[in-house]
């Protein structure tokens, strides 16, 4: 007995979404300061985010030249100028 193809497709998509959300919650949860089973993976994800979102020195220089901004005087926690 097979399911309706539309219902089957919806079920598969819902399963993928629920799995992705559960994985995201597990990897981003705060388990406290002690090392745990997901510490290495969480550290790798943090390093990947830092690498992706942090501009290189060359990019900072290009931004400063093209937009006449001083990124060194920004407060990193708030993004506001001194």
From TrEMBL:
It comes from the Eukaryota. This is Uncharacterized protein. It comes from Diphasiastrum complanatum (Issler's clubmoss). The lineage of its organism: Eukaryota, Viridiplantae, Streptophyta, Embryophyta, Tracheophyta.
């Amino acid at each position: 007995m097979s399911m309706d193809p539309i219902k089957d497709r919806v079920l598969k998509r819902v399963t993928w979404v629920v799995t992705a959300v559960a994985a995201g919650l597990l990897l981003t949860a705060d388990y406290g300061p002690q090392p745990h089973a997901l510490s290495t993976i969480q550290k790798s994800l943090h390093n990947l985010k830092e690498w992706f979102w942090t501009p290189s020195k060359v990019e900072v220089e290009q931004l400063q030249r093209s937009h006449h901004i001083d990124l060194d005087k920004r407060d990193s926690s708030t993004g506001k100028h001194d």
